[in-house]
Amino acid sequence: MAGCCAALAPFLFEYDTPRIVLIRSRKVGLMNRAVQLLILAYVIGWVFVWEKGYQETDSVVSSVTTKAKGVTVTNTSILGFRVWDVADYVVPVQLPDKTTVCKSDANCVAGSSGTHSNGIATGKCVLFNGTVKTCEVAAWCPVEDDTHVPEPAFLKAAENFTLLVKNNIWYPKFNFSKRNILPNITTTYLKSCIYDAVTDPFCPIFRLGKIVESAGHSFQDMAIEGGIMGIQINWNCNLDRTSSLCLPRYSFRRLDTRDVDHNVSPGYNFRFAKYYSDLTGAERRTLIKAYGIRFDIIVFGKAGKFDIIPTMINIGSGLALLGVATVLCDIIVLYCMKKRYYYREKKYKYVEDYEQGLGGEMDQ
């Protein structure tokens, strides 16, 4: 092989091979520096300053407990004078229709029950009134009649009730925990404060009417058919700073849909019963269908702390982007600008070997 190569060598140098010399335009150089400055501003300003790319992050783990307070009274023909306190209002008979109207016992199936039934069918067809018969059911009497919803709201005074929210959070990656009842909050302050976004932004006691109002709704209107309110607690913490600056931020919004055009089964309601025995020893119950406002407490947040690994990753990514600046400028100048052909001629110049003083060396 060595002899073969020696024989071919003179043949290869008989041709004058043109060389390409890269000539960098001053305008292109300025554009390149401008793009590099923009990339540098992005890496420093956005990645490191705004997004804190030098930090390791963790999501919040949270637990919440609540305590409601408030007392009101009602005086109706059905219930009479009655006092309502926390134990009464804090809780998480079959009418004729097409499926229950009958003509004889043959139309009633004993032991059957439907989704909307108030009891178990006995198999008997009995008079509901002077003209209508219905299938008899074994159920609590009288059966529920929810065709009329009290308006205004039955417990309209609940607007002034208060809700104490106790929230504990933990960032396991950093072993950092805190609660929304801050260290500087005293027992005296806690007994008198009510949350206000301006004057008392860290008080954990909220007036129910103010929560609904902050979400842009009326408590009295919402209480008629019920609804669902969200109390959002945001814990975004920079753990490179002192822990006293890691503070909860509260916001409020209504969670159930209020679409006037599609208002099927609106609001929020639930049923609960209270049982007792009368003078004869018979078991009785008071069934309450409550239209109320449910409060969902949603906790979210993110904590960040300096870590060398994400710092080096982002620095490396930034340096790689700076290297892309030259390629990007070349693409713009050579393929996108109106004078791309002019720049292409100026960027590359074809010269012969002898013009660079190489011809004489080859002859030798």
Could you give the topology of this structure?
Layout: H1 2-12, E1 19-22, H2 26-50, E2 55-59, E3 61-69, E4 72-76, E5 80-84, H3 86-89, E6 120-127, E7 133-138, E8 162-171, E9 176-179, H4 187-192, E10 205-207, H5 208-214, H6 219-225, E11 227-238, E12 249-254, E13 269-277, E14 283-291, E15 293-306, H7 308-335, H8 340-347, E16 348-351, H9 359-363
Parallel strand pairs: 11-15
Antiparallel strand pairs: 1-16, 2-15, 3-8, 4-5, 6-7, 8-9, 8-10, 11-12, 13-14
Helix pairs in contact: 2-7
Catalytic activity: Ca(2+)(in) = Ca(2+)(out); K(+)(in) = K(+)(out); Na(+)(in) = Na(+)(out)
Subcellular location: Cell membrane; Lysosome membrane; Membrane
Disulfide bonds: 102-125, 108-135, 193-203, 237-246
How does this model look, in words?
- Helix 2 runs antiparallel to helix 7.
- By secondary structure, this protein is α+β, with helices and mostly antiparallel strands.
- The chain has helices at 2-12, 26-50, 86-89, 187-192, 208-214, 219-225, 308-335, 340-347, 359-363, and strands at residues 19-22, 55-59, 61-69, 72-76, 80-84, 120-127, 133-138, 162-171, 176-179, 205-207, 227-238, 249-254, 269-277, 283-291, 293-306, 348-351.
- The chain is elongated.
- 28% of the residues lie in helices and 31% in strands.
- Residues 1-17 and 19-23 have low confidence and may be disordered.
Number of strands: 16
Oligomer: single chain
Low-confidence stretches: 1-17, 19-23
Overall 3D form:
elongated
Give me the strand/helix succession: HEHEEEEHEEEEHEHHEEEEEHHEH
Strand content: 25-35%
- Biggest sheet descriptor: 4 strands, mixed
Rg (CA only): 40 Å
Number of helices: 9
The CA-CA distance between the termini, in Å, is 24 Å
Helix share bin:
25-40%
Pfam families: P2X_receptor
GO cellular component, one term: lysosomal membrane
Organism: Canis lupus dingo (dingo)
Membrane topology: Multi-pass membrane protein
